[in-house]
Amino acid sequence: MILNGSTDYDRKAELKAFDETKTGVKGLVDAGITEVPRIFRLPTPETLISEQLGQLTLPTIDLDGINGDPVRRKEVVEKVKDALESWGFFQTVNHGIPVSVLDEMLKGVKGFYEQDTEVKKEWYTRDTTRRVLHSSNFDLYAAPVTNWRDSFYCTMAPNPPQPHELPPPCREILLEYSKQVMKLGVCLLELISEALGLDSNHLLDMGCADGVAVLGHYYPSCPQPELTIGTPNHTDNDFITILLQDHIGGLKVFYQNQWTDVPPTPGALVVNAGDYLQLITNDKFVSSQHKVVANTIGPRVSVASFFTTGLMETSKLYEPIKELLSEDNPPKYKGITIKEYVVYHMAKGLDGTSALPHFKV
């Protein structure tokens, strides 16, 4: 196996050649490749890493009855607090989004990737000013390893796109799913505010639900999944992420010094804290490392909703919440704009480290 550091290997030229096809990883699979190209190969095969996989179980939080029963709500708030202090992740059921909408959203994303190649190429771009960004690896030229994954990124709030600006295979469902996921995001941010001992509107008043981006990921089946990675270990650059995953699986969370599998649960959504939530809570809630392994049975489809204003120009500064600070718990981070964080995160790429230390006081 030729590793990325080999002297006879012009990685930059191979990245450029791959990018210029505008067909992504799916294009390689459609062409019938039987070996993983060098740009995708990990320095250490994933099988060696996966041996550390633990048998721990991600907390599942049932949101049923939280608006009608104060005792029930208090129990749920406590569970949210425990999950975000330890895992930084939880699964949620009875979240209010119908299973039919979840299924249609997954079907719409799959439909986008499986449409005619020439039609799909028209959406392929690295121009971050576009409303819909379709590419393979946002950090293609920065990351040490190319991911076995294609993605599209749609900014759905605060200024939602017009229907004609969205890809036809997932146009209607994207608009509907976004509305429903934003409603759920507001509910979760209220619970998280209460879990911090604050008024339920605190995080909403700070603007944590002002922006939402929906990412549709497509992980094609891989001939040598142990040699590559679907998404390398990383943290999310947002306040919270709401993830819809299909039945294939492959998501793993780093918890108690080991990788723990997050098997798909029909009808459930995975929720995790992002870097901004860790920053404004002064490390009370954790933005945990997670990854997605490649597989031979794909394609795997997932939909991640990021609560962030992304690259929008705004002067709003985010810093540790004053009510959470004390003499014994001084601020650990400086005030930053969301755009400042995103620019740094994108330039750094998914290199296995968090961007948070860069913004420490």
UniProtKB/TrEMBL annotation:
Q: Which UniProt keywords apply?
A: Iron, Metal-binding, Oxidoreductase, Vitamin C
What Gene Ontology terms describe what this protein does at the molecular function level? dioxygenase activity; L-ascorbic acid binding; metal ion binding; oxidoreductase activity, acting on paired donors, with incorporation or reduction of molecular oxygen
Q: Where is the Fe2OG dioxygenase domain?
A: 210-310
Q: Which SUPFAM superfamilies match?
A: Clavaminate synthase-like
N-terminal signal peptide: none
What family does the entry list? Belongs to the iron/ascorbate-dependent oxidoreductase family.
What is this protein's name?
Fe2OG dioxygenase domain-containing protein
Species whose genome carries this gene: Tagetes erecta (African marigold)
